[in-house]
Each structure stands twice: as structure tokens, then as C-alpha cells.
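#lab-general

N.A. 3:47 PM
ok so I finally got the sequence cleaned up, no stray characters, all 746 residues accounted for. can someone with queue access submit it? mine expired

B.Y. 3:52 PM
send it over

N.A. 3:53 PM
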Amino acid sequence: MEDAREAAVAKLAELLKHPDDLNTKVGPLARKLAKEKASIDAQLNTGVQTQLDNVQGGLETLASSRDNSEKIKDNMQLIDRLCYDAQSMIKDFPRIKKISRIHQNFVATQQKVQSLQELYQRLNDIEEMFAPMQHDIFMYDTPLLHVHYHLYKLEEFRDQTMHQARDSPHDVIITLKTYFRRLDVLSDDFTQYLWEISRNLLPLVDRDCGTTIVKLAKIIELEEKADEKALAAKQAQTSHQDLQGKGGWRLAEGNPRTIKSCRVEFFEQLHQSLRERFEEELAPYRDNEDWMGALDATDFIFNDLELVFDEIVPKFPKKYKIFPYFVLEYHRHTYDFLNHMVNQDLDAGTILRLLRFVRDYYSTMSTRLGVTEELLEPQLLDGQEQSLVDEYLKLVRSKLVEWTSNLMSAESRDFVQRHQPPEMTSDGQYGMTGAVDMFQIINQQIDVAADANQGKLLYLVVNECHKVMKDSQSFWRKLLASETRKQLDEPEQAPEGFVEYVMAMSNDQIKCADFAEEILNRIIPQVEGKYKAQVQDKLNMAVDGYMQIAASGREALLEVTFNDVKPVFHELFTPRWYEQPLIPSVIETLKDYCQDFATHLNEFLFNKLMNDTLERFIMLYLEAMRRKGAKFHMEVCPDNIQKDIRLSFNFFAKYKSMDELEERFDVIDKVHTLLNSNRRMIFVDYYSLRQAYPDVPLAFVEDILSKRDDLDKAALKDIVEGIKAKAREYEPNANTPPTIFSRIKW
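B.Y. 4:20 PM
back already:
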């Protein structure tokens, strides 16, 4: 009931996905479900009625059979009674009957004596045939059936004799047993020979002794038929006691044969031999705890079963179901071995190999042997693959955390202490070994999981690796922020080499992003469809995270670089700026830094850093115009600004294209034009600036104009009011992207 309720709720959730569906879909769904229910009810009623009719017919047939059985029993009793009554119709019948019985006994005794006299000679003949093959089951063209036939006859004679002598004195029975002891020994030896053949079916096939197997099957069939006849006689003896009461009825005397159950014993011997086969193949690996080797050695299972199907199955009657027996026996031994293996302390690689083995096992059974998973009971690992997956992921997680923690500890120590410069590649770029080492570990885990050929497992391992990558990114983000703050706040106390190690760390982050992207491109074809998007998301997030850390490293380099020149920018447009050029010292500092960046930094990062450097330079230059101490002496200020622009332009021209530089320096050119504009042109120049940079703050324009020494307060007031009026008339385009003015913190 609970399962049905859950199924119903799930079905409703699928049909009614939105609140509006309650108004629009409930009515049609109710009518549709009512029709389906009526159709199912009609089918059930028809099926139930058919079953009731069949049961009724069966009951009637049973009743008729019981009546017929009673009639037959009555008729047999009538026949017995007529036979008994007819004896009185024959003159001297008792005497005739007695003489006939005496004659029969005499003939039987004569035959019995003759058989006893010939017994040892017949045994000699059988032993002579049996001796050569007794110790070599691989002998070609053995007289196996001939030996069995004669031995069967002697056993039949022995059983009859012992049965007839069952009421004889004890010494007679002892004498007969002694006389038959040689036959008993030979019979036991022959039986053991048959079981030796049963235990070696596969070796017999390998040695081209298939005819021996056919003879074995024939002997088992003959013995089974004899057992069935003996059991039928005993059953008749038990079931028809009421037919024996008048002395003349001999039907149910029974059968003296000893039941052998050869077929049962054959399968018992086969079971024992298959257990020994598994022990022989897998015990060395188990004793040495070489579980990977044991799993690799299981190919014999499928090879043996193919041999059974092709060579052994045709040699037995279909009713023996030889192939299903072999399959289930091999499967159960495999099941027991895997259960023993699971209870051991397995490493991550062995667990993964075990999971892959189970999957490949069922697949091979199906493709090579045509045996589906549903037929193989019990289920391997008892369906506990998920617990093994969890254990594997736990081991992967612990190993990844352990290895990466050690890597991070060593690299963070080098990054913080900086006793030695970072390593340098052949092309001059700084780097650290941690990125390569970490992704070797990650690649190893992912490759092993991919070899398991299980999409979900691969996704889960990728997920664990993503956690490690995410933790690594968080670690570097915090460490970089902490060390950058120390470098900026207390540069004298910070160890040397910060810039070099930040370049190395940033280069490593780009490498990590490339490694993660390579993993993504490599494993996506191996991931199942339902996990593909999740794997892509995880690895894309990892790539983005590494790029963000690299960007943070770039920002740290930028902060350190401009931290050295910020005091100079604070003095622009102050009296000192008018006394001597200041920008040359800034350019020299930038030149030193950028030369190192160009040599030791990843090309992609260097290009990004130069973009940032150029923008930061322009932003600081614009910010300096608003500083409290800035004054624009219009006789010399425009020329000085022009010199600053020319010098800085020439410096950045080494790293950026002319078109890009002209576009970037345009903002300073337009501000310079506005600053140098006369009262009649100032509105036009402001409009030009506003057109190009719609987000230019009005306060910025007002500030720089207020610092001109050629404008008195009245003139400044008129200009500012005119600019404000112009600003109100201007309607910027809402789709215009923000410019450099939006990135300046005013």
C-alpha cells in the first residue's frame, strides 16, 4: 500500500507540475483515468472469470479421475477373487500347484548354483578389462560400457541372492557376504572410477576424451532407470498391501536392488570438482592477498563455460541441464570469493577494479554466453556496490586531501618565507611544482575511475577532485590576500621576492586551468549523458576558479607596482611638479617592473597585466587632477601635461598597439583640451568629452576648472552654470557601456 501511494504521488507530481494545472487539467485527467480504470476492471473481470472456469474444469477432471481409479481397483479385486475361486474347479489343483512350485525352485536353485560357480571367473574377466583403465581416466577407447554391463549383471545377481536369503540363518548370510566381497570391492572401485571421470570433465574434453564422457552419461542413465524401476516396485509394495492377502497375488513383492542415486552423486562430485577448480586457480592470489591478480585470473571462468557449452552439454541428456548447473556453480563460487575479498582491507584501486569486474562479469556472461543477469543468483556483492563506491570515494577523498595538503603546506611555506627564488622554466617563466604534482594526482584518480567504465562513479570522482581543486583555490586566494596586505602595509618587514612568487603562483594557476580544461575535453566522451552536464559544470567552475586566482595575482602585482609610484602621483600638479618632471620616475619604475613581467610571466597574464597597468596609470593621472593640492598654472600646465602624455605614450607603445593606445589616451587628451579651452570654446569641448564619456562626473569637470588660475570666481560660476545647463540637455544612451570614469573611486 505504501509503495502504491508513493507511485500515485509521483504520477500526480508528473501530471500536475504547476498550480494552474489544478484548474485546467484535473477534469480531463479524472475522465481519462476513469476510462482507464473501467478498461482495466473489465480486463481483470475477464481474466478472473477465465481462471475460475479453468479451476472448475480441473476440479471436475480430478473428481472423474478419482472415480475411474476406484473402478479399476474394484475390478482388480474382482479378478483376484475370480482367480482364487477358479482354483476349486480344477481337480487336485493344490497338488499340481505344489509340484509346479517345487519344479520352479529346483530350476532356480540349479541356476543359482551355476551362477555362484561362475562368479569368480566372470569377476576375473571383468577385472582384466577394468585393470588397464582403472588408474588412467584419459585412456582412449576404453571398454567402459562393457565393464559396466557385466558388473551390472553381477550386482543384480548379488542383490537378488541376498534378498532371497534375507530370512536365512545368520551364518548363511555371512557366508554369502564373504563370497560376494570381491564383487563388492570391484563395484566400489568401478564407482570411484566413474566419480573420478565426473570430477575431470573439462580435462577429458581438453584431451579429446569426449567418448568417455558420453559413456559416463549412458551409465548414469542406465543406473537411474534401474533405480526408478526399484522405487516403483517398492512404492507398489507399500501402496497395494490390500491386494496381497490371498496368497496368489505377486505383483508387489518389491525389488531387491540397492538404490544408488548415481545422478545425485554425479552432481555432488561435479560440485566438489568445481570447488577444487576455483581453489586451484585463486588460492595462490588469496593467500598472498593479491586481489588485483585474482580478479585478472578469473578469465578461466568464461573460458571453462564456453568449453562446457560447446563440448560437454551435447554429451548429456537435456534434462540434466548441464550448462545452467555449471553456470550457477561458477557464479556461486565467484560470489563466495568476492564476498571474502570484500571483507578484506582493500585499497582504492582494488575497490575500483572490483566494481569494474562485477560490471564486466555480467556483461561477459551476457555477450559471450547468453546468460542474463537475472538468471545469476545470488547477486554479486549482494547488490552492495554503492557501499563499495562510498568506501572508494572515502579513500579517494582522504588520499586527495592528504596529498594536496602536503603539497599546499610545502608551497605555502616557500611562498611565505621566500628563502629561495621560485623555479624557472626553460622559457624563463616562474613557476612552482605544486600545480603539476597536484594534477598528476588528480589525473591518476580520474583515469582509474574512467577505466572502471561506470559513468556515475566517474562523475563522483570528478566531484571529489573538484572539491580538492576548490579547496586549493580558496587556500591560495586567502594566502595571496594575506601576503599582499603584508607587502603593502609593511614592505620593509616582508621577505623579498614577493613579486617573483606572485608571478610563479599566477603562472601555476593558468597551468591548472589548462590542466582542468584538458581533463574536461578528455573525459566528457566517457561520461554518461545524464552526468555529462554536471561534469562539465564542475570542471568549468574549476577552470573559472583558477582564472580568478590568476586575476587576483595579476591584481596583486598591479597593487605592488603602483604602491611604489603612488606618492609621485600625489604630487602631480603641485608646486613640485612645476619645478621638475615627475612622470619620468614613474615610467622608470614601471619599466623595471614590466621588464620582469614580460620575462617571467605567462604571456596571457602579461597582456592582461599591461592592460590593467595602462588603465591604472590613466586613472591615477585623472585622480591627481582633483587632489586638494593640485593647481593648473595655465602658462605652463598644458605643456607639462603634453610632455607627460608623450612620455607615457612612448613607454606603453612597447607593449600595446598604436590604435589601442590612442583609444586609451583619448580621455586624457579630451580632459587636456577641456582644461586648456578658452571661455567661448569650453562648452564645445565639454560636449565633446561628454559625448565620448557619458559617465564623466560633473563634479570632476567643475573641480578641474576651479583649479585653473586664469578664471575668476564670476567667470567660473558662469561656465559651471552653462555646463550644468548643457548637462541637463544631454540625454545619454542607456545602452552605452561604462567608461574609465565609472571605475574611478571619486
